[in-house]
Specification:
- It is a single chain.
- This protein is about 35% helix and about 20% strand.
- The chain is elongated, with a radius of gyration of 23 Å.
- Strand 2, helix 2 and strand 3 form a beta-alpha-beta unit.
- The chain is α/β, with parallel strands linked by helices.
- The longest helix has 15 residues.
- It has 10 helices and 9 strands.
- The chain has a 6-stranded parallel beta sheet, with helices on both faces. A 3-stranded antiparallel beta sheet has the order 7-9-8.
Length: about 280
């Protein structure tokens, strides 16, 4: 059995995307597929649900737009998610076909915990995508877990940044200028706007730096990011309002970040150390 090339780079990974329609909001599908593209190429895209149910009728248009194959699974018992077994059987069939490097399991259901573990045992990379209500057992069974809430907020931010069509110039009206803020007020505002990073996350970062640090106490930021995800699969700098890991770590007073020049004058690599170490 060929379980795929585990050495495949992120962009070259062939991914099987399996979606549980009964546990995921349909309006996030486009954003979810864009997120998956960061980690590899989705060569298989299937979504599971009882398509005779009016509860998931809104999925039709998003599925057409993203070329995802719907798989019919009737609900044999009222109130019981029937998609789980069909999705698990398909995942094992895909695994034994040997045409993938990894799987993306899009669900908030803990029933897929054992599936994720089994796929990883076979040498496949497993990415999980779900809501924040997802049980921890499923989260830690994945190589990396991404929250749909984060993906959705990213999409909303992009929409806001898109230029709006120009409107006809409105008549000028006199408006009173807001009172000027003094320096103290500005500092307070900036402090309130600063994202709050939990102490347990700061400790996780500090412990990981300690695990990786060389004799000079410096750690390459890329290695730190990899270890953080291994230790806590749902770790994501976006959960805390940061665009990248370097910005997040730099915002914490405990750590020092140094950007070092490479042979390419346009590229600098970030390194970090724990000042309290």
């Amino acid at each position: 059995m060929n379980t795929g090339n585990t050495a495949a780079s992120a962009n070259d990974m062939r991914l099987a995307v399996l979606i549980d329609a009964e546990n995921i909001p349909y309006h996030c599908l486009k954003s979810v597929m864009e997120e998956i593209a960061i980690y590899g190429t989705p060569t298989i895209k299937r979504i599971y649900g009882d398509w005779t149910s009016p509860n998931i009728s809104n999925w039709k248009q998003p599925l057409l737009e993203n070329a995802i194959t719907p798989v019919q699974q009737y609900s044999y018992t009222q109130g019981k998610n029937s998609s789980d077994s069909a999705m698990i059987i398909d995942a094992m069939d895909i695994l034994y076909a040997g045409n993938t490097d990894g799987f993306v399991l899009v669900s908030s259901d803990s029933d897929f915990t054992r599936l994720a573990i089994r796929l990883r045992e076979a040498g496949q990379r497993v990415f999980g995508i779900g809501e924040k209500k997802t049980p921890n057992a499923f989260i830690v069974s994945c190589d990396k877990f991404i929250y749909i809430d984060v993906i959705g907020s990213k999409a909303k931010k992009k929409a806001k940044e898109e230029p709006e069509p120009e409107a006809a110039p409105a008549k000028k009206t006199e408006t009173k200028k807001p009172p000027k803020q003094d320096k103290t007020e500005k500092a307070d505002t900036a402090q309130n706007d600063k994202p709050v990073i939990p102490k347990k996350i700061i400790k996780l970062i500090a412990d990981s730096i300690d695990d990786l640090a060389d004799d000079n106490e410096w750690v390459y930021m890329g290695e730190l990011g990899t270890l953080l995800i291994k230790k806590q699969p749902d770790f994501d700098h976006r959960n805390f309002g940061f665009k990248n890991l370097s910005a997040m770590v730099k915002s914490i007073d405990r750590f020092q970040v140094d950007f070092r020049q490479t042979a390419d004058p346009n590229i600098k690599h970030p390194y970090v150390r724990d000042k309290e170490s």
